[in-house]
Design a protein that fits this description.
432 residues; UDP-N-acetylmuramoyl-L-alanine:D-glutamate ligase; Protein-Tyrosine Phosphatase, Chain A; 18% strand; Mur-like_cat_sf
Length: 432
C-alpha cells in the first residue's frame, strides 16, 4: 500500500469493525505483530480536559532533557500524521504505509479465522506501537482515546507514570452518567506498582482514584494548586510560580497554570523513577511548549482565534478567557459541534457574548450536528445567528462581519480547526 491507500484502509475499517468494546481485538492484533508495545515504557494520560496541553509540556520538556520521546495523541489538528511523533518528527508517509500494510496482513489472518475486524483507532494504535518500537523510544507518552480501562492504548504493561487530568462529564453514553462511573473507567489506566499524578479532581472522582491506587499499590501524588500562582498573565502568555520557582508559559488561558503544575509534578515524579530533568530544562521546556487548538491565534487583524472547547468544563474555561482577555471588544463566533456533546450548555455559556454567530457542520463525521439544527438551538439565547453552507462559507461570512479591531473565535470541536486554519492562511497569503 502507498500512503493514500493506507489512509483509506484505516478509514474504511469503520465499515467492517465489530466485536465487543473491550481489549480482545487489540490484544489479538498486537500478538500477531509480535507485541512491540511490550518493548517500551510509558506515561499514560487520561481524563477529560487538559490532556493535550499536559502531554505537550511533558513531551517538549523530556525532549529538551535529551530523552528520545514518542507521543501519541488523538484527534490530530492540522496533519493526520501528527497523531504519532518521535523526537519532534511525525511518522513519515512511507513509514505509515509500511506499518499499515503489516497491520492489514495481520487483520486478514484474523478475519480468515473468524475473528472481529479491528476499529480504525485500534489500527492506528497498532501502527503507533510499531513506529515507537522501531524508533527505539526511551519513553512514550500515550493519550487515551476515550475512557481508560477498555481503551486500545490500555493494552500496555510497562506504565511508568499514569497522569489523570481533571475528570468531568463527557462521553456519558459510553462511560457512565455519574462522575464516579466515569472516574472508574479513566482510573483503569493505573497499573500495579506504577506512579500516579493528578490535579483538581472533584471529591467523588478523587475518592475513586485513591481507592484504585490503593488496590494496585500505586504511589499517588497530587499537584498542589495552592502552590500554583500566575504572577503575570496576558494573552501572549503567562508566568507561573510553582513551589518557589517561576516558569514562563507561552500558552494563554488561566487553566494553563493547572495544566503546567500537573506537568511539573509529573516531571518531579519521573525524576524519581529514572527520568530526571533539571529545573532549567523544565523552565525551557514549558516556555517552548506550543499546543495547537487551545486559544491559538491564526490571524491578527481581526484577531482570529481557534479553540477546541467541546464540553461543559472546556466551555467554562473558554468563557473565563473571553471575559479576561476580550472585555469591551466585539466578538464574532464560528461554532460547530457533535450531537452527542452537551452543546446546549456550551451555547448558554458562550453565545451571549457574541455580536453574531455562524454555525457549521463538523465535516466527515456521523456524529456531526447539522448547522441549521445548531443555529436553531443558538437562537434560544442569541438571535444573531445564521447557518453556513460550508466551512469556507463560514469563514467568508465572518470576515465580512468583523472589523479589524474585533475578535473572531471558532470553537466546539478540534475536528475542523485544521480546515479553518488552512482557509484563513490561504486567504492571508493571497492578500499579502
Amino acid at each position: 500500500m502507498d500512503y493514500q491507500q493506507s489512509r483509506a484502509y484505516v478509514k474504511d475499517a469503520d465499515r467492517y469493525a465489530g466485536g465487543a468494546l473491550d481489549l480482545t481485538n487489540i490484544k489479538e492484533l498486537m500478538k500477531r505483530l509480535g507485541n512491540p508495545q511490550d518493548q517500551l515504557k510509558y506515561v499514560h494520560v487520561a481524563g477529560t480536559n487538559g490532556k493535550g496541553s499536559v502531554i505537550a509540556y511533558l513531551y517538549t520538556t523530556l525532549s529538551e532533557a535529551g530523552y528520545r520521546v514518542g507521543r501519541y495523541i488523538s484527534p490530530s489538528v492540522y496533519s493526520y500524521r501528527e497523531k504519532m511523533e518521535v523526537a519532534g518528527s511525525a511518522v513519515s508517509r512511507e513509514q505509515f504505509a509500511g506499518y499499515v500494510t503489516r497491520v492489514a496482513a495481520a487483520i486478514k489472518e484474523m478475519i480468515t479465522e473468524g475473528l472481529a475486524h479491528p476499529t480504525p483507532f485500534e489500527i492506528e494504535t497498532a501502527v503507533a506501537f510499531l513506529f515507537f518500537a522501531e524508533e527505539k523510544c526511551d519513553l512514550v507518552i500515550l493519550e487515551v482515546g476515550m475512557g481508560g480501562n477498555l481503551d486500545a492504548t490500555n493494552i500496555i504493561r510497562n506504565t511508568v507514570l499514569a497522569v489523570l487530568v481533571p475528570i468531568s462529564m463527557d462521553h456519558q453514553a459510553f462511560l457512565g452518567n455519574t462522575l464516579s462511573e466515569i472516574a472508574e473507567k479513566k482510573a483503569g489506566i493505573i497499573k500495579p506498582g506504577c506512579s500516579v499524578v493528578t490535579v483538581g479532581q472533584q471529591p467523588e472522582t478523587m475518592a475513586v482514584i485513591e481507592r484504585v491506587c490503593r488496590g494496585n499499590g500505586a504511589d499517588l501524588t497530587e499537584a498542589d494548586l495552592h502552590e500554583a500562582k500566575a504572577v503575570k498573565e496576558d494573552f501572549a502568555g503567562q508566568t507561573l510560580e510553582y513551589r518557589g520557582e517561576n516558569y514562563e508559559l507561552a500558552l494563554a488561558g488561566s487553566y494553563q497554570t493547572e495544566n503546567a503544575a500537573l506537568a511539573l509534578e509529573a516531571l518531579e515524579v519521573l525524576g524519581r523513577v529514572g527520568y530526571p530533568t533539571t529545573v532549567e530544562q523544565r523552565k525551557k521546556g514549558l516556555k517552548d511548549t506550543k499546543w495547537n487548538g487551545r486559544l491559538t491565534i491564526i490571524h491578527r487583524e481581526p484577531l482570529f482565534i481557534v479553540d477546541g472547547a467541546h464540553n461543559p468544563a472546556a466551555a467554562d474555561m473558554l468563557e473565563d478567557s473571553v471575559r479576561k482577555y476580550f472585555k469591551g471588544r466585539k466578538l464574532f463566533f464560528i461554532m460547530g459541534v457533535f450531537r452527542d456533546k452537551d452543546y446546549p450548555y456550551i451555547i448558554r455559556k458562550l453565545c451571549p457574548y457574541a455580536e453574531q454567530i455562524i454555525t457549521i457542520e463538523t465535516p466527515d463525521n456521523p456524529r456531526a450536528l447539522p448547522a441549521q439544527e445548531l443555529a436553531e438551538e443558538v437562537k434560544k439565547c442569541n438571535p444573531h445567528v445564521q447557518a453556513a453552507d460550508s466551512i469556507p462559507d463560514a469563514v467568508d461570512k465572518i470576515f465580512a462581519m468583523a472589523g479589524r479591531e474585533d475578535v473572531i473565535l471558532s470553537f466546539g470541536s478540534l475536528s475542523f480547526i485544521g480546515e479553518i486554519t488552512t482557509i484563513v492562511k490561504t486567504q492571508e497569503e493571497k492578500n499579502s
